[in-house]
Amino acid sequence: MPDRRSRSVDVPRDVDLRLPRAPGVIRRFWARHPLFADILIALVTLTLSVGPPTALPSGVVLVAAVTASAALPLRRRFPVAVAAVATAASGRHDARPLHPGRRPC
Question: pLDDT tens, 36-72?
C-alpha cells in the first residue's frame, strides 16, 4: 500500500523561515545606499536638463533645472513636496516655444 505522508520536509512551527537574499550584487548595493542613488539621479537629471556644455542655457532654465534637481534627493522623505517643486520648476521650462520667432503649426 502506498505511503500517504507528504514528501515535503516537516518544519516545526516555532522556527522562523529564512527568506532568500535579494538577487544580484548591484541591486543589493543600491538598496544599501539610497541617498547615493538619489544624489546620482539628481546629478544626471541636472546634466540632462541643462543641455550640452557648448550651449549655455538661459538664466530661467538654469534656475529651474537646479531647483528641480536639488529637490530630488529629498524625494523619499517628502514625495509630494518634491513632485510639486519639480512640476512647478519644469512648468516654465516647458512653456517656452521650441523655435522663437516661428508660429506653431
Answer: 999 999 999 888 877 766 666 677 778 888 888 888 8
Contact 61, 38 (CB under 8 A): no
pLDDT given at position 19? 74
Scanning the chain, the segments in alpha helix (DSSP H) are: 25-32, 34-50, 59-71, 79-95
Residue type, position 5, single letter: R
Mean pLDDT of the region 21-26: 76
Distance CA 45, CA 54 (A): 18
Q: Mutual orientation of helices 79-95 and 59-71 as an angle, nearest 10°? A: 160
Q: Identify which of 42, 39, 59, 61 has the alpha carbon closest to the alpha carbon of residue 50.
A: 61
In Å, what is the CA distance from 79 to each residue of 16, 38, 54, 71? 35, 12, 34, 10
pLDDT over threshold 60, residue 104: no
SS3 99: coil
